[in-house]
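Sequence of Protein PatA (Aerosakkonema funiforme FACHB-1375).
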Amino acid sequence: MSTLPKLAQNIALLSQKRATGEWLLNSSNSEWKLNFYRGHLLCTPGGFHRCRRWQRALKQNCPDFVPEETSLNEPWEYQLLNVGLAQKQLSITQAKAVIRTMAEEVLFSLACHSVTGSRWLPSKQPNVEILSSLPLPSEEIEQSIKKVQHLWQQWQKASLDNILPEQVPVWKEPPKEQNWSLQKLLNGDNTLWDIAYQLKRPVTNVTLSLLPLIKRGAVELKEVPDLSSPILKQTKKKVRSTSAGESASSNKQPLIACIDDSPVVAQTLEKILAPAGYRVLKITEPLRQMSALVKHKPDLIFLDLLMPDASGYNICTFLRKTPMFQKTPIIILTSRDSVVNRGQAKLTGASDFLSKPPEPEKVLQVIQKYLSVDRQP
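Predicted 3D structure, token representation.
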């Protein structure tokens, strides 16, 4: 069970038998799941960094789709795609591409890890509503397996067997030459999968280009936790109490947007804000996700200054020229905390300025400061 040909053989057998159920694959420290419906691949939950994998697949195939946090059964990835299709935020082509991208990452991860066991759990009907055109048929699964096999052959040929794509490369010693793009990517937040997505290059090529730095000891590989799940746990939801005289609309949780290319920053803010009763809208590619910002119209915006494809100053200026956001509090959130940065941020219309990493007390204070003022009669 440790090689792709054996995986491909079993998947082909499940497709041939038009099987419905869940195939569980175990390694020493993780469990992957491949869900099938009548021999078609439904979803591939589980394994390492499930939520990071989901976010990458969305960014790659449908960057304008921003699913709202909700409570759903497993597999929630498939159900969120169903919701996007029902709301006409996604096309069938986009949704299938998301399933395919996640499946290819899972198959490659299975090739990197030693699979110690597996078991098949048959079922008559999945716990989710099935759209017949959405799950991947056998011929599409076969194409993805061939793609992964080619990538795995390159990985082995480059002698990268002791490296895992879910690891995070970070500087162990400061680089002698300033390379802002490389410093931005090797910031302790991005896995090799993440860097490959951002550079739009195969993960093998990215890892191979970093190998000299790794061998020299300038860069080391670390592990990072997964992002938080987009599925709300009802026990963690906190609803603000209201008096009898307040309107029903005032009971709605305020929405806070985080415009930052780092998903870790958004996750950090979410951990601070969700227990305090706030909803979070994560925008990692502002140029491509501006429609989501307009659609949801957040009550307050946290904005990063330095992003690969956009300047926080320019985004702030643009938002201030947009009538919808002229009075929306915009808080600049950056690691470059200086008098010059503060002054420039104020000139573009920023309301306030906070340093990274965000401190819970200061984040909540600045939100209370601006939202309480904004809601005074």
